[in-house]
Amino acid sequence: MRGYRLWLVVILAVAAVCAWMSLPNNPGIHWDWNDDGKYDGEFEMDRDIKVVQGLDLQGGSRVLLEAAPGTKYDDETMSQAVQNVERRVNGLGVTEAVVQQQEGGRIIVELPGVRRQSVAFEAIKSTGLLEFVDFSGVTAGQYTEGDCILTTEQVRLAQERGTAPESLDQYTCPSEDLNNPEPTPAILNNGQPFTTVMTGAGLEDAAPMVQGQVTASWTVQFVLKDKDAPGVQAFIDYVASHANQPLAIVLDGRLVSYPTIQPDLASAAAAGTMDSGIITGAFDRQEAEILAAQLKYGALPIPLDIIAFDTIGPTLGKISVERSVRAGIIGVITVLLFMLIYYRIPGIAAALALLLFALINFALFKFLPVTLSLPAITGFLISIGTAVDGNILIFERMKEELRDGRTMDRAIEAGFNRAWTSIRDSNTSTIIICLILYFFGSAFGASAVRGFAVTLGMGLVINLFTAVIVTRTFLHTIVLIAGDQLRQRHKLLGA
Amino acid sequence: MFQFAQRRKYYYLLSACVIIPGIIAMIYSTITTGTPVKLSIDFTGGTLMEISLVNDVSEQHVRDTLEAYGLSDYVVQRLDPIQSEEVEATHSEAGSRWQIRMEEVEYLDDLKAFMQQPDQLGEFWSPRSVEEDPNREAALATSSVSPTVGKEVTRAAFLATLAVAVIILFFIAWAFRQVPHAIRYGACAIAAMFHDIFVTMGVMSILGLLFGWEVDALFLTAILTVVGYSVQDTIVVFDRIRENIPKHRSDSYEMVVNRSVLETIHRSLATQLNAVFVMIAILLFGGETIRQFIAILLIGLMSGTYSSIFNAVPLLVSWELGEIPFVNREGKHRHEEVPAVS
């Protein structure tokens, strides 16, 4: 019985932590041991603990994007733009956003949660045209980060879109200064645009990466496409022949950085073994993430402007959602009552275990956080069903053993041991299914599928703990307290 | 003992009675509309309308108005009211602003006129800025929109289901490796899973033809739930067969199966009952926007429980007795080797 006492302590500790996290006004965890205002040290943590709800249940923000005035586009470019926006939004981990093409060159984006200054908007809006630009002859310090650089690719695109000004010196970059909307004039290279070596279209993949241990600096690592993709061969040739010379990285016309090509990279390029690289710059984490998402999913075929921003209600309707939540709670209470009436004393242990199960899940939803949308909640409800099923399996088994004439204590043991294989195998199969769904949901940007898989899979893993260990510990505790009475009256065990 | 497995033909027949009409409905629907089930605006796209009202009405009121006009496929979302001095100057009451996604409407002006009737939503309100900038009105009033659920998502769900079928087949074969013909358990569980998918899709197709029920984004979630539940439920029943085979070596396979089903039937009923409790509670008391989703889920889950007991398990017996065409090539002569059932 000593083992159960230890488990009881563990269970109560878990319950206490989860109950604290589930508090509606939980302050979050903000550990800043050296009080430097940053949460970057060891064991330092900055995390809000709050419920994140999906667009369908809580609503969020609606952004209306429109092709920048004067740009030419056709249906195909528009749907390409919609696809890119959608992928970028998914790439940033925003769950179950709605991206919809509207006639007249517009795109509606609905994101869960209200965040006016959201990072996501920045990521969506900017074109994401990345260029590797020939900067040979430029000396260190000649240009600074953020300078507006005109390139051959920008001129080509402007002519294609019909937005080209009359002369080269009239090109500008949109202002980055909110107080001064005056556009920045572009810098020319001796009266000519700089030469674009390769655009982001030559990149296969990109990911944010942290470099350095003490002062973490963010970079973006990229993988090149095959040599026959546009610009890739030119890029490799350029790197091979320009050792110790600067190569500029320009994003949407603005200079990001111009690192020097290291000799060993140049020789790797010459030998034909260069297939990846790193973009350095003064990024913070968010900027690196956004740039990576933009590079990975490609530049927008046309520049977009934000023309309207609104808060928007839930797609499922506020009242409807409230009613459904209440109904779901009624349903779960009915289940608990059923368990109590049908299984009596073990039912109490099961009901307590189920409450703990729900508490652990809910705490994790808040902590991770998991965006709660209807598909996600459905996954959770099914996992509750599985948790109940686990208990039913155990208790039915226990009753069978009692009917076969076993003593109560042996029947309880046998109930747990024999039910375990079916709980283990059935839960494992569903966990495998969740992994498959998660994989496909992520690969295809179907975040509803992913959300469902996350909550269901998480619930099943937790269930393997609660259905067996927690119910068992609770039941043993009850037996310890009131064992004699139970031994005499099997009716209390529901048999 | 109740001769459960002997009556397997009736169980198959009952399944066929649901699935065959469903398949016919799907074929009919594909011929007439191009898709096996009726698709909602989530998949087809439609019209997006944004309206500002002088009155502050409830969401339900907007829905009722759309219903009254004869629309069934729509999504209503409240937008925050435009905050400007102009609004405060022109009317004291707080107005309301709505975004409505709906199926294509032939006469939009007619719908707008209908909505503006005093007993419906009342007058529309247009800010001065719209009069000055007709572009904005064009942007916000009505326009056609693309589907919100891309083809990729549907494809993801479809491919995921196929991947599930293959991987679970092998998982079960591995988990049941200590009993003879372990792969059969995997195959029968997968057969039961497809049974449940067909029942759910078929019923949806029939309801689409009869009552105009439309498949929306949530339907994908319902199907995936059915997939997960179906396999899980089947394994629980199979587990008992796995346990009973070594315990009752002298009994025929049919008898072992009989015994296993009867031993687990309490659990099957109790678990199913619990699922039904939750679903019925949401159906009765829940919001109407998810009622259809829950109804379909309920059908899928009931099918999942039915197919575990009445398809997956009897199929094992049929396989053992060589009754499945094409699979049992050696024919019926094995039937005689099995001890007679008493």
List keywords for this structure.
heterodimer, A: 495 residues, alpha+beta, Multidrug efflux transporter AcrB transmembrane fold, Gyrase A, domain 2, 2 domains, four-stranded antiparallel β-sheet, 12 helices, 50% helix, elongated, B: 342 residues, Alpha-Beta Plaits, disordered C terminus
Question: Nutshell version of this structure?
Answer:
The complex is a heterodimer of chains A (495) and B (342). With 495 residues, chain A is of the alpha+beta class.
Describe how the helices and strands are arranged.
The complex is a heterodimer of chains A (495) and B (342).
Chain A: H1 2-22, E1 29-31, E2 45-47, E3 52-53, H2 55-58, E4 60-67, H3 75-91, E5 98-102, E6 106-112, H4 119-125, E7 130-134, H5 152-161, E8 172-173, E9 184-185, E10 196-199, E11 203-211, E12 217-224, H6 232-241, E13 247-251, E14 254-257, H7 263-271, E15 276-283, H8 285-297, E16 304-312, H9 318-367, E17 371-372, H10 374-403, H11 408-443, H12 447-488
Chain B: H1 8-33, H2 41-44, E1 46-53, H3 59-69, E2 74-79, H4 85-90, E3 96-102, H5 108-115, H6 128-132, H7 134-140, E4 142-145, H8 151-175, H9 182-211, H10 217-247, H11 253-285, H12 291-320
Antiparallel strand pairs in B: 1-3, 1-4, 2-3
